[in-house]
Every structure is written in structure tokens, then in C-alpha cells.
């Protein structure tokens, strides 16, 4: 194998190693993304679910809809509460 081929293989292994390191960090919880449902947001914020739905409809609270269920990143909820 020539030097060019060896360099390409070396670069591919480095890329795979970097990807594996990122996956490992996520699994270890270094990049946790905690999602809350509307009941958990209500409990955390001490606001009614109606108020939370209103914030969603006004676009002031970010959300994700998975399987028909409203889910909120905890970090987004905390930002929203801080105003």
C-alpha cells in the first residue's frame, strides 16, 4: 500500500475514533438532554397546564411533539421561566 492509501485509512480511523468519543460522552451523561412532559413542566413551574399550552400556542415556549405528546427540553423551560 502506498503512503496515500495509508494516510486515507489513518484519517478514516481518526474520524471513527472521534465519533465514538462523542457517542461515549453522550452515553456517560456529559451531554444530557432531559425532556419533560407537560405535567412535569407544570409541577416545575407551578403554572397550570393551560398556561403552558398558551405559551406553546403563542410560540414563547419551545416544544417537540413526539407520538402526539408535547415534550419540552428542561433547559428551554428554565430559560422560558427566567423570562
Describe the model.
- The protein has about 80 residues and is an alpha+beta fold.
- It folds into two domains: about 1-30; about 35-80, Multidrug-efflux Transporter Regulator, Chain: A, Domain 2, CATH 1.10.1660.10.
- About 65% of the residues lie in helices and about 15% in strands.
- The protein has helices at about 5-25, 40-45, 50-60, 75-80, and strands spanning about 35, 65, 70-75.
- A three-stranded antiparallel sheet has the order 1-3-2.
- Strand 2 and strand 3 form a beta hairpin.
- The longest helix is centred in the first third of the chain and has 25 residues, at about 5-25.
- The N and C termini lie far apart (about 60 Å).
Task: Examine the coordinates and then state which fold CATH places here, giving the name of the CATH topology of the largest domain.
Answer: Multidrug-efflux Transporter Regulator, Chain: A, Domain 2
* Number of individual domains: 2
Helix content: 55-70%
Q: Count of DSSP E strands?
A: 3
Q: Could you name the ranges where pLDDT drops below 50 across 5 or more consecutive residues?
A: none
Number of helices: 4
Q: Which value, in Å, is the CA radius of gyration?
A: 21 Å
What's the CATH class of the largest domain, please? Mainly Alpha
Mean pLDDT score: 84
Q: What is the CATH-assigned architecture of the largest domain?
A: Orthogonal Bundle
Amino acid at each position: 500500500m502506498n503512503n496515500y492509501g495509508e494516510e486515507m485509512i489513518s484519517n478514516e480511523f481518526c474520524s471513527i475514533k472521534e465519533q465514538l468519543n462523542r457517542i461515549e460522552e453522550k452515553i456517560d451523561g456529559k451531554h444530557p438532554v432531559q425532556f419533560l412532559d407537560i405535567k412535569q413542566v407544570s409541577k416545575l413551574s407551578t403554572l397550570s397546564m393551560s398556561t403552558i399550552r398558551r405559551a406553546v400556542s403563542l410560540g414563547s415556549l419551545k416544544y417537540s411533539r413526539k407520538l402526539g405528546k408535547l415534550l419540552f427540553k428542561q433547559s428551554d423551560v428554565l430559560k422560558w421561566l427566567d423570562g
